[in-house]
Write a structure and sequence with these properties.
The complex is a heterodimer.
Chain A (H helix, E strand, L loop, with lengths): L3 H33 L5 H27 L12 E2 L5 H10 L16 H13 L30 H41 L5 H21 L2 E6 L9 E5 L5 H7 L5 E5 L3 H13 L3 E3 L1 H4 L2 H13 L6 E3 L10 E2 L12 E10 L14 H9 L4 E7 L11 H16 L2 E2 L13 H24 L1
Parallel strand pairs in A: 2-9, 3-6, 3-8, 4-5, 4-6, 7-10
Antiparallel strand pairs in A: 8-9
Helix pairs in contact in A: 1-6, 5-6, 5-8
Chain B lengths: L3 H15 L3 H15 L5 E2 L7 H4 L4 H9 L14 E2 L1 H8 L11 H19 L6 E2 L1 H12 L7 H20 L11 E2 H7 L12 E2 L10
Classes of the chains: A alpha/beta, B mainly alpha.
């Protein structure tokens, strides 16, 4: 019993010293730069090292594959079939023309009409545009994370050792570090904003609030080891505007908010999120809705308009897709935010999946699992483009305006511009969409039928 | 991922049976896994996840064609409950593009198979004839989305078309002669001259591999 005591105290001492050293390092290299918004360039160096390692690993895999005569690369496809662009009318006319004994001016229903629909149906079963947007993007080479290993088999001992080392580094060194940072960031946010809330309204309060927010978001950015490149910062959103961006994950908020001071919009949650939200709103006016108010579109539009018209209030941050998409395309923008009439500042966010896939597949992973996956990836690398502001033109309706903004974002980020609704992740196609095709076809037949009965 | 030996054997077998290339088979296999949710078989419900398919007026007939025992070459009637990957490929092979090196006989065979697929789509009770009821059923489905067309007009359109078909197949009919339905041979007669081999196929994109360069 007594023999253990000095032994114990030695361990306790060592523990104490190492923790202190760790915290000092943390403070000096991460937190202080975050407060002042400067960077030592550690993350960029880390990224370059990782790229070199990936390149080496790929070379080894290529060599190994050649030796064993394997096919290493998956075929690159943006869809496996070439869809025929002819329309319903053209096709049916063509088929009927080639029929032997029918005159062109008295067409009616024919057996061959079923053709076009049959083929279109087959094409969509083989490959459709929508379903593939809701699963994670596939990589062309392996980035040493087992979660992205679809095709790459055991090649060599060295590679496996490297992978093992990677696991060790990610889980035993980076993960605790990141959790500690995240914890620091979130608690500083709550404490800081609550304290700022006690200050009297005025320029000093605004100044403090802005810097507390920025500081905490920057710490969170470092907690995820996010390496972000901002382009065209002169186009950053100003007061009285709405900032609109494509949505890939909840991290988008942290990425944008660490470079600018925004007012958030959202529903009040319970638990930790709720605590954070309530604290934030003490320091500056964010727009939080009760659960019941969210359904009422007029109320939402009213409050947003009110916020936007007050020029002293911050630009609002909104994600009009309404759900997370896997960052290969941009889906339909909901028109609500485009009806308000404020200046829209579009922002395009594109992640590089090689260091860690940021897409949140909410049907597969819950929020906590997702955050853990983020924190055990190598890093989150992304590019943010601030696009020049856009306003709704005089005779343009909200839907058209929304589509215009969406195309601009898709073009800048190199994403595919789709008309489909992101809500299809969870729901079925609306009936109004279904009827379009059938209306077109039946117009062809009934129209002709009427002509015939007249003659 | 499993090891190479057994899967490439299977792939080669499938290439021989269905005529797709091994690249195409691999692509279709990934699509199959996506549709089945990583299970080994697909059921009718799995096709509900394709939004584009919802727009198609004859979607139920197309889905049914996948489970039709005649198309699967398993039995002359009835529907399967679920299909595996090989069955999936068998159905897809009806839409394979024509190869340029096919001779007359192969072309004829190809055409017949494709037409047989369409015939099965019309002939839902598998009795070998497309009756007036079945014809009406197809026309109604195709016109079903339009609220302005009543059932009556859909019916009369179908009846008119059926009469035309009868006149092609049987020629002039006696007043009390009943036309029982379009048989497969009559069906072939109707389609004579219509060039379907080049229309009834889905074109695969050329697969290119990309090299890694940073």
């Amino acid at each position: 019993m007594f023999l253990l005591l000095p032994f114990n105290s030695l361990i306790v001492n060592l523990l104490g010293i190492s923790l202190t050293v760790l915290f000092t390092l943390l403070l000096v290299f991460i937190i202080v730069p975050a407060i002042f918004g400067v960077s030592f360039g550690i993350r960029k160096l880390y990224m370059k090292t990782l790229l070199k390692i990936f390149a080496w690993a790929t070379l080894r895999m290529e060599r190994g594959a050649k030796e064993k005569n394997h096919q290493l690369y998956k075929p690159y496809t943006n869809g496996i079939i070439a869809k025929d662009p002819t329309s319903l009318e053209e096709e049916i006319k063509e088929i009927r023309k080639s029929g032997s004994n029918k005159a062109l001016d008295t067409p009616e229903f024919e057996l061959s009409d079923i053709f076009y629909f049959c083929r279109k149906g087959m094409e969509t079963i083989m490959d459709d545009e929508v379903t593939k947007r809701f699963s994670a993007e596939e990589l062309e080479s392996w980035n040493l994370l087992s979660r992205t290993n679809y095709n790459f088999q055991y090649i060599s001992l060295r590679l496996t050792v490297l992978w093992g080392l990677g696991v060790l580094i990610r889980y035993c060194f980076l993960l605790p570090l990141r959790i500690a940072l995240a914890f620091t960031g979130v608690s500083l946010l709550v404490v800081g904003t609550t304290m700022v809330g006690y200050l009297p309204n005025g320029r000093f309060k605004e100044f403090m609030s802005k810097h507390v927010h920025l500081m905490c978001y920057r710490i969170c950015v470092r907690a995820l080891t996010a390496i972000i490149t901002y382009h065209d910062r002169e186009n950053r959103p100003r007061n009285g505007g709405i900032c609109v961006a494509n949505h890939t994950s909840p991290i988008d908020v942290i990425i944008l908010a660490s470079d600018g001071y925004y007012a958030m919009v959202g529903q009040i949650h319970g638990g930790l999120m709720g605590v954070i939200q309530k604290a934030m709103v003490k320091a500056c006016p964010h727009v939080w809705f009760e659960r019941s108010e969210v359904k009422d579109r007029h109320l939402v539009a009213e409050r947003l308009t009110e916020h936007v018209q007050d020029k002293s209030k911050l630009p609002i941050l909104i994600f009009p897709e309404g759900t997370c998409i896997n960052n290969t395309s941009v889906m339909m923008f909901k028109k609500g935010s485009f009806e308000i009439g404020a200046t829209v500042y579009p922002v395009a966010i594109k992640y590089d999946p090689q260091f860690g896939d940021a897409f949140w597949n909410s049907s597969k992973y819950g929020m906590v699992t997702y955050l853990l996956r983020m924190m055990t990836s190598w890093a989150i690398v992304c590019s943010v483009w601030y696009l020049p502001p856009m306003t709704r033109e005089a005779n343009e309706d909200a839907v058209h305006f929304a589509n215009r903004v969406k195309s601009a974002i898709a073009r800048q980020g190199g994403l595919v511009d789709l008309l489909w609704d992101g809500g299809l992740k969870r729901e079925k196609v609306k009936d109004t969409f279904k009827e379009e095709q059938q209306k077109l076809y039946s117009k062809m037949i009934v129209g002709n039928h009427e002509d015939r009965s007249r003659s | 991922m499993g090891s190479s030996q057994s899967t490439s054997e299977e792939v080669r077998e499938l290439v021989g049976k269905t005529g797709f290339s091994s690249d195409q088979i691999e692509q279709l296999h990934r699509r199959f896994k996506q549709l089945s949710g990583n299970q080994l078989t697909i059921r009718k419900e799995n096709f509900n996840n394709i939004p584009d398919l919802e727009l198609n007026p004859i979607r139920s007939k197309i889905i049914r064609a996948f489970f039709d025992n005649r198309n699967l070459r398993k039995a002359p009637t009835g529907l399967a409950d679920e299909i595996n990957f090989e069955d999936f490929l068998t159905i897809m092979s009806y839409f394979r593009p024509i190869e340029t090196n096919m001779d007359e006989e192969q072309l004829e065979h190809c055409r017949k198979e494709k037409l047989r697929f369409l015939f099965h789509m019309y002939d839902s009770d598998s009795d070998g004839r497309i009756t007036l009821e079945e014809y009406r059923n197809v026309v109604e489905e195709l016109l079903s989305g339009n609220p302005h067309i009543e059932k009556e007009s859909a019916r009369s359109i179908a009846d008119g078309a059926m009469m035309e078909a009868a006149s092609v197949c049987v020629g002039q009919m006696q007043p009390d002669q009943v036309y029982e339905g379009i048989t497969f041979d009559d069906f072939l007669k109707i389609w004579q001259g219509i060039d379907i081999e080049t229309k009834m196929h889905v074109r695969f994109l050329n697969m290119e591999t990309i090299a890694l360069c940073h």
